[in-house]
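>> received
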Amino acid sequence: MKTAIITDSNSGITQSEAAKLGISVVPMPVLIDDGLYFEDLTLSQEQFYERLKGDSRVSTSQPNPEDVGELWEKALKTNDAVIYIPMSSGLSETCRTLTHYAETEERFKGKVFVVDNQRISITQRQSVMDAIKLAEDGKTAQEIYDWLMATKMQSSIYIMVDTLKYLKRGGRLTPAVAAIGTLLKIKPVLQIQGDKLDKFAKVRKLADAKKTMINAIKTDFETRFKDVVKAGKMTLAIAHTENSAEAEIFAAELKEAFPDVEILYIDPLSLSVSCHIGPGSLACGCAIKY
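>> returned
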């Protein structure tokens, strides 16, 4: 059985990387003022942050199901099935919309498997890489889907937000709380545990934020992911928003803290998350690998 692997640009996989991997990436739509742009096609990371830091109205949207359906249909001409790995349903309605589409369109029934395994960014990328390896090992689309769903909660992400401005702009903080937080120079550390972006801790210094994230990963490794770490199946990765230099430094600190765990990626965070937290953020994540 030949299976096509398709994901979206929330995975951090670029169009050029996708071509090398032999997969497809659906570009996520970004609304800026009155214009519609597509991540990594008509909108670069640099262009996005230039507009985000200005006075532009920036938000993200769902891809058109018909456009995604055309990509599935094209893939099915040369493959028996499609594994589609979108961003977590906890962060967007996209996954639910496309799951319904795959289950109700006769041409896709039993052929397109939409994986709602609660991933985003670096952990979503790991799911894609796992799916590729599973397919190479001769697993069927159903077997690939089952493995990704069975391991969906074996991942974790922690994110330091550099400024409260964008959380306020998106309505996630009241103006009063944002003002006090900015005055006190608070840097919240957020988490994604298979669902929504949620609070985790509050710190005031970058060094404290990194220490908090490293300690959180350490706790995960010693508790809920203990068996995965022992089996040598845990990975680490780093993400950031327009903060690549600090991400490289953080990578070295993570390597020192976890010398036996491979650090696979240092990626820009997806624009779907970036528009809510703004530039200057730093994140680390862990995920099981196949």
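>> The longest helix spans residues 206-222.
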